[in-house]
Amino acid sequence: MFNLFQNIHIDWLGKRRIFIGISILIMLAGLISAIGRQLTPGGTDAFNLGVDFKGGSVVTVKFRNLPADEDIRAALRNVGINDAVLQNTNRPDELLIRIPLLENTGGGDAGTSDISKAQVEKGRSTVKQALDTFGPEAEGEATLDTAPNAAYKIIGTDSVGAIAGSQLRNQAVTATLLGCIGILLFIAFRYDWTYAAGGVIAVFHDVLMVLACFSIFQWEVNLTVIAAILTIVGFSINDSIVIFDRIRENLALHRKDSLFKITNDSINQTLSRTVITAGLVLLSVLSLVIFGGEVLRSFSLALLVGLILGMYSTIAIASPIAIWWQDKLGEADIKETLAPQRKDKIASAARRSVTRKPVTR
Questions:
Q1: Which residues contact 10 (CB under 8 A, 6 or more apart)?
Q2: Cβ contact 286:301 at 8 Å
Q3: Are 260 and 323 in contact (CB under 8 A)?
Q4: What's the confidence (pLDDT) of residue 210?
Q5: What pLDDT does residue 213 have?
Q6: Low pLDDT (below 50) residues in the chain
Q7: How far apart (Å, rounded) are the C-alpha atoms in residues 60 and 69?
Q8: Which of these, 73, 82, 72, 86, lies nearest to 102 by C-alpha position?
Q9: Would you call 141 exposed, middle or buried from its count of C-beta atoms within 10 A (0-12, 13-18, 19+)?
Q10: First vs last Cα of the chain: how many Å apart?
Q11: Which residues contact 208 (CB under 8 A, 6 or more apart)?
């Protein structure tokens, strides 16, 4: 097997406080960003929710010559619409432009239907203002055939609700929690419940860190971001299980070593596999970030940040937390320098703390 690192001896557990401190600082920054934005008068929401979560208006436009999507998005950004979703129809010259809710469209004692109508009218006028950069619209009853100088015509407008309502958001959270419980039970059965706790805490760490980045940088959160987060959960726990399996093998081979040393050696022995696997995936995700365009921007950014954090948490978070649990239970000693008279006792405790089962190859 190709190995990037030969005879590497990095003291990962010795630096665990630094790694955990970095993670806590980033999560605190995300929490402060979310709470600060929410509580600031006139400020933005904690997260930049896209049209999928907030709803908005959809404008159907027929073009004489359909411009490039990037040109349309640039024109929409010039009039203050940054989160538009463009969707092609079964006709090559038509386009659906879905825009988020716009401000100052009524309120107070106005009914829901009146607010929806105001949203549609404001959405139509804003989209028209943006599309006028490509040429005039065919006004009134005129069509593109009867108005030769017209570049486009708005043939339909409507109000759309949030695709991802509170029920769907709750279902996504429930699915994630049930998945983590399943992971916890599997690792507890296959290895040891202390390792299960470390793996699941590392998964929550990755999710919280991704959400912190989305709050800090105000990247758009849409349905594709939820899909990316669920992908990150599976990728992160897979790498953690590889390290846990190596720890179990080394416990059988090096019975007199401390659990601290065995864990460090296991992380170093699997480091090449972790870097190669994550690196190849990152190359694909990086290409999506650079060349995927606005449609895949949120999805690719969530994957990019999540994969980097997943590789980091696999090495620096999951195993230290598992060892910390065992240390608190008195079943392992993770001090780097061990008293000679206690080594046999500690090694014996480490062997008892992990259920070793045959590895099927």
A1: 264, 267, 268, 271
A2: no
A3: yes
A4: 92
A5: 92
A6: 107-111, 331-361
A7: 14
A8: 82
A9: exposed
A10: 15
A11: 27, 30
Q: Is the dihedral of CA 68, 69, 70, 72 positive or negative?
A: positive
Place of tokens 């040109």: 71
What 164-171 contacts at long range (C-beta under 8 Å, 24+ apart), as own/partner pairs, is 164/52, 164/53, 164/222, 164/223, 164/226, 169/53
Which whole-number Å values give the CA distances from 326 to 100, 242, 263, 321, 354, in the listed order? Answer: 50, 19, 12, 9, 10
pLDDT score, position 212: 92
DSSP string over 117-174: HHHHHHHHHHHHHHHGGG--B--TT--TTT-TT--EEEEEEEEE--SS-HHHHHHHHH
**What are the structure tokens assigned to 348, written together?**
């014996």
Show Cβ contacts of residue 6 under 8 Å, excluding neighbours closer than 6 positions: none
Show the tokens assigned to 225. 């971001």
Phi/psi for 145 (5° steps) reads: -75, -35
Domains annotated on the chain, with CATH: 13-36+165-353 (1.20.1640.10), 56-158 (3.30.70)
Question: What pLDDT is recorded for position 274?
Answer: 82
The model's pLDDT over 318-344, given as tens digits with 9 standing for 90+, comes to 888 877 777 666 544 444 433 344 444
Distance between alpha carbon 200 and the CA centroid of its chain, in Å?
16
Tally the residues of the chain: 361
Assess contact for 60 and 155: CB atoms under 8 A.
yes
pTM of the model: 0.72
> In a 10 Å sphere around its CB, with 0-12 CB exposed, 13-18 middle and 19+ buried, how is residue 327 labelled?
middle
Single-letter amino acid code for the residue at 317: I
Residue whose C-alpha is closest to residue 13's, from 319, 275, 327, 354: 319
Cβ partners under 8 Å of residue 271, min gap 6: 4, 5, 8, 10, 315
Q: Which amino acid, residue 160?
A: V
Residue 247 is which amino acid?
I
